[in-house]
Protein 1
Amino acid sequence: MKRIGWILGGMILAAIAFFIPERSGYIWAPVISAVGIAGLFLLGLVVYIIRNGKSQFDRVFGIGIIVLLAGATIYSGVFNYQKAGWQLDLLMDIRATIEKGISQAQSTEPLLLSLEAYHNQDGSNRKAIEAVFLERNGEKIRTINGFNRFIPHDETEEHDSPYLYYAEAVSSDSVVLVAQSMRIPGRDPGFPNYNGANGYMQFKATLTEGGLNYERQN
């Protein structure tokens, strides 16, 4: 009866240790706490085997099995922890690549279309590159929190872009749009982003009469 109670007690403690820490927000907390409880349970089992083993062979064999199980569990845990970190880094790289493509498409498309319209003008009364851009995209520039936000055509309240776009400069000879990620860290964690944040990935697109320059700032 005592053995059954010992086993049931270990199972209950491991279950409690696994489910309660999940509220911490750290995904590995339940696993680590449950493994700790299981380790204490196995330690108690070792003590029990040493005290109650019928022979030296039984004690050595029982302890050997427990050591093998504990070693395999520790190895598996460390391996999966490292694998999870590698998968997280890989997912961040994939997401950064996807967001880079989104940024490039959403910030360069209006500029390239404005450049095409600028060069397709006829006659002597040609508009400056600034006027052409504002004629096509003026309604997409809104002042929000003291910044001139550029709102892409597909950004809605239901589906926001992963980037914040800013009209950094709109002058007679150039138009500059800045695309700042809201989630993906850049190369330099101390980089000052356009909106006052630090360390996020950021790109800059500059349109002039001669063409478009697109560069990564962080």
Protein 2
Amino acid sequence: MRHKRESNVVAELFPLLVEMGIDPSEIERGHPSGGGRIDIYIPRYRLIIEAKASGGATQPDVVRAGQGESPRQQLERYLEAEVSAELERLSLAGGEHSRKAWTGILTDGRTWHANEYRHAWNPARRPTPLHSGRFSGTAEDLVGRLAQWLAGDPVGRQWVPADASKLFAEKAKELARLYREIPANIRRKPDAQSALWHDMLHVSGMSPRGGSAPDHLFVVHSLLIAIARMMICAAAGHTGGWEQSLRDGFASWTLDGPQGRASDILTSWGRSLPIGRLGPP
């Protein structure tokens, strides 16, 4: 790889990481951190990559004209911010800390500087060098080397992607179908809840338009309430308490009905809900 623009280096690194078996949804690009943006950040693998244009990684410790820090200092600024944030977050939540080390990589596509950093305060104090210099192997060789640097199991649960809507789209469709098929003999309660919900939106000036819009938004809003209750309960360590917390409010219709009720779908799906940032690692 040899590119004049950092964005091109990032674009070529992305498929290499996917080839390693990393889910594309877990690869964050442009993640805000430490007063800047990380070019590539994979939280569960504790990997931070700072990409530079051609020649930008040949002297990692040199501060260039117009820059306030060296490329390595920039990388370690991001790493310090993310390590500190995770340590603080887990301390507040009372969670245990994974000892998996962080990997920081600075590259322009030809020259690579990779270091291992402790998962501890001031991680940049004594990094362990993994590689420094040109890498002349094939793309397959590079994938193998990256896999060595990232050895070990990922931390926590599946990472929530920047656009999480796809995680919920299918469940929204299933809930909509169940809502349409609620038997007439138990239809009165959900209809009343939907009417009250619609009245609240109407009073607020946000009444949905279109014949099918109210029912669709009612189901989606119910799903969002259920997701929020699941995440709150999971963060507090009460993974089975979300149903009880959902009984007050218009979304409680998901708890009623015959076999195959909406809550059965939500329960099975909630077991694998990716809430790595909130739940225990």
Protein 3
Amino acid sequence: MLLIAIFKKGILRNQSKYYRSILIIFLILIFSKFAKSDETFPIVINQLDYYENGRLLIDSSNGISTFFLKPNIGNQSLEISRWTGIERKNALSTSISMNHLLSYFANEGNLYILFKDSGKIFLNTYDNSLN
């Protein structure tokens, strides 16, 4: 922008091409220092975990509770894991037997699972300790 303003005002019109080139290079070097990036605060994104064939629920209504639901052998049981935060540390796990998962949701740290077994519909509720 400054270079455009200098050319429009005619400051460099009367100078020789040599001085004009030196001034342009000097200005580019000065202004490039302000635009230079560094790695003072690098952003690092890592894949925390890979959850194959599972369903990850994050409930942020009352802190951050993360639930992971994964069907086990032949979809006859469902493994439920719960941990606090985003990273999987100090996870609690339990397993329930069920035939057909209908719906699930998390609210205020509780997990609600609606499933069908033997022609009947059941609603299970799990708290922070997966009880």
